[in-house]
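Structure (tokenized):
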């Protein structure tokens, strides 16, 4: 698929939806092509185990950090929920837990199915799991469109969390260091910078697809948060230390014009832009995997030509 064809496909009306031909891209990694160059013999039998271990490690890290954050902020148990950082970190933690659960379920389901049959072929394993024929692609696996099964609702929830938490997490990092940057403590770095580091790593090693028009999901999240801040302010709510605002740049009573500008630009510009960043990372990952696949196949093609001669 050329770049022009790819972009045209992104702007079709159905790209707003959450339909996809193959659920395996949500729980497997296309980076195994790269790993096979270093661990060829071992990966021949355990080609998905490294990704399962990665999911387990990230999930453990996210839960530990989440617990540390709420241990430090225990003196503000409810008011901590006023902040966009808290909303974003909760969604990122939920995404991590769900991704690990789905990955483990897919891994053990495929092992059970391999044990129930004498055929240990990976392609047939995925075919049994999805009810269709598959071929390798840049994003992992792709189904024969003649027989497709709709992805379950929890995969759709996973996909929405992926869009919202990843674009939202990058947006939180950018907005914090552009507008606030009032502290540089270890806790601040952990929740405002390391979150984006884990997001970028996850985008590059996972096989999850990304659609440009899915910006509507993080956009909806941004709108909901801004409406929440307006309602909370109108109801007389106070921020930390009884400030009359949650964020100084969202002071609707003291600086309403600035608050309106920040709210509109944050939702309508920053959030879609951050989703485009995630999309660009996914395209870069697909291009890299495609390049590695071509390089991996080139020696085989040359050997075939020599044999034919």
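Design, position by position:
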């Amino acid at each position: 698929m050329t770049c022009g064809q790819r972009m045209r496909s992104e702007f079709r009306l159905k790209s707003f939806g959450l339909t996809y031909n193959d659920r395996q891209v949500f729980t497997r990694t296309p980076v195994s092509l790269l790993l096979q160059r270093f661990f060829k013999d071992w990966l021949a039998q355990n080609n998905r185990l490294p990704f399962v271990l990665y999911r387990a490690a990230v999930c453990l890290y996210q839960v530990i950090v989440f617990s540390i954050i709420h241990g430090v902020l225990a003196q503000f148990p409810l008011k901590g929920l006023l902040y966009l950082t808290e909303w974003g970190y909760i969604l990122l933690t939920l995404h991590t837990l769900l991704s690990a659960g789905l990955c483990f379920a897919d891994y053990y389901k495929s092992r059970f199915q391999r044990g129930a049959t004498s055929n240990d072929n990976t392609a047939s394993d995925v075919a049994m799991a999805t009810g269709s024929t598959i071929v390798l692609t840049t994003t992992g696996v792709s189904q024969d469109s003649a027989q497709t099964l709709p992805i379950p609702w929890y995969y759709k929830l996973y996909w929405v969390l992926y869009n919202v938490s990843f674009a939202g997490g990058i947006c939180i990092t950018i907005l914090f260091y552009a507008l606030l940057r009032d502290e540089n403590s270890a806790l601040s770095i952990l929740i405002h910078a390391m979150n984006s580091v884990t997001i970028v790593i996850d985008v590059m090693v996972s096989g999850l697809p990304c659609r440009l028009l899915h910006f509507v999901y993080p956009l909806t999240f941004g709108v909901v948060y801004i409406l929440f801040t307006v309602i909370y302010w109108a109801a007389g709510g106070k921020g930390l230390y009884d400030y009359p605002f949650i964020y100084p740049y969202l002071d609707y009573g003291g600086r309403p014009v600035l608050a309106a500008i920040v709210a509109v630009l944050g939702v309508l510009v920053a959030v879609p832009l951050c989703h485009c960043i995630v999309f660009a990372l996914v395209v870069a990952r697909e291009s890299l995997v495609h390049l590695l696949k071509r390089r991996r196949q080139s020696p085989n093609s040359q050997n075939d030509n020599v044999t034919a001669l």
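Reviewer-requested clarification: The chain has one domain: 17-308. The chain is about 65% helix and 5% strand.
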